[in-house]
């Protein structure tokens, strides 16, 4: 599934701890920065969301595509926009959604909160279990 | 998409901070507990994975289904197995994968690390953005 579109979703309501309550949410600023950075990224579709439940690590973003691993990234600032788009492009290019280590910008590597395996798909990292009794 | 199967994936290599390096990973214990707890959960498929990149909040689990929001849960212990399965069942029953608040066990609510919107799908929480120039 290399070459598919990756959805890059930015939380537009994220406010890092200590941010002024009456200021524009940092997440909204990040949304604009990412939209600009993604102008030429044909494989990346940018979306904004009202809360990704990753509030303690604001600002947050996710990358996802059908049948692939998805990723959650936190502690983001607007200056990370280009790195985020580069990571989303690497995700789009990776058959299973797991970009090679060298394709992950350092800021993204260091602030990866989690990766979610694709539902119902076989993958070398994942082992399917049968529900067990008391065995 | 209510009534579909939800994949509940447990990290089997998770070791909470300070855990003995020569002991069985707590994640492996959690895998067994969840497999037992899911015996009668027809809508839940249990899988184990080698690392979900949520190591700082071990033990971790994810729930996912095609076209739905997925969730990442952390700080789990084997005693959370039944709550995890109940949450996965609520996820399977929710059309968009967002279980009603009352269907989320308290331990799961309090330890939700992130939710990932479904790629390429429309949802009231999500706004699609067009790549922008310098506008």
Summarize this entry quickly.
In chain A, 22% of the residues lie in helices and 21% in strands. With 135 residues, chain A is α+β, with helices and mostly antiparallel strands. The mean pLDDT of chain A is 92.
Which class of secondary structure composition applies to the elements of chain A? alpha+beta
Largest sheet of chain A: 5 strands, mixed
Beta strands of chain A, count: 6
Assembly form of the protein = homodimer
- CATH C-level label of chain A: Alpha Beta
Which protein chains make the most extensive interface, counting residues with beta carbons within 8 Å of the other chain's beta carbons? A-B, 51 and 51 residues
Q: Helix amount of chain A, in percent?
A: 10-25%
Query: How much is the average pLDDT of chain A?
Result: 92
CATH topology (fold) name of chain A:
Glutaredoxin
Tell me the Rg of chain A in angstroms.
16 Å
Q: What is the terminal-to-terminal distance of chain A?
A: 38 Å
Question: Could you characterize what this model shows?
Answer:
The structure is a homodimer of 135-residue chains. By secondary structure, chain A is α+β, with helices and mostly antiparallel strands. Chain A has one domain (6-116): Glutaredoxin, CATH 3.40.30.10. Chain A is built from 3 helices and 6 strands; from the N terminus they run E-H-E-E-E-H-H-E-E. Chain A has helices spanning 26-37, 81-93, 106-110; strands at 6-11, 44-49, 61-64, 70-73, 112-116, 126-129. In chain A, strands 2-1-3-4-5 form a 5-stranded mixed sheet. In chain A, helix 1 packs across helix 2 (81-93). The longest helix of chain A is centred in the middle third of the chain and has 13 residues, at 81-93. The model of chain A has no long low-confidence stretch (mean pLDDT 92). The interface between A and B is large, with 51 and 51 residues. Strand 6 (126-129) of chain A pairs antiparallel with strand 2 of chain B, so a sheet runs across the interface.
């Amino acid at each position: 599934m290399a070459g598919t579109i990756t959805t890059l979703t930015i939380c537009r309501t994220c406010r890092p701890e200590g941010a002024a309550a009456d200021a524009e949410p940092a997440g909204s600023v990040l949304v604009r920065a990412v939209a600009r950075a993604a102008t030429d990224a044909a494989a990346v579709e940018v979306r904004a969301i009202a809360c990704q439940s990753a509030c303690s690590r604001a600002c947050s973003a996710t990358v996802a595509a059908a049948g692939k691993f998805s990723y959650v990234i936190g502690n983001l600032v607007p200056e990370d926009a280009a790195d985020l788009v580069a990571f989303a492009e690497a995700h789009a290019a990776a058959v299973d959604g797991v970009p090679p280590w060298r394709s992950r910008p350092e800021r993204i590597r260091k602030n990866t909160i989690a990766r979610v395996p694709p539902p119902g798909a076989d993958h070398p990292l994942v082992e399917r279990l049968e529900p067990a009794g008391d065995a």
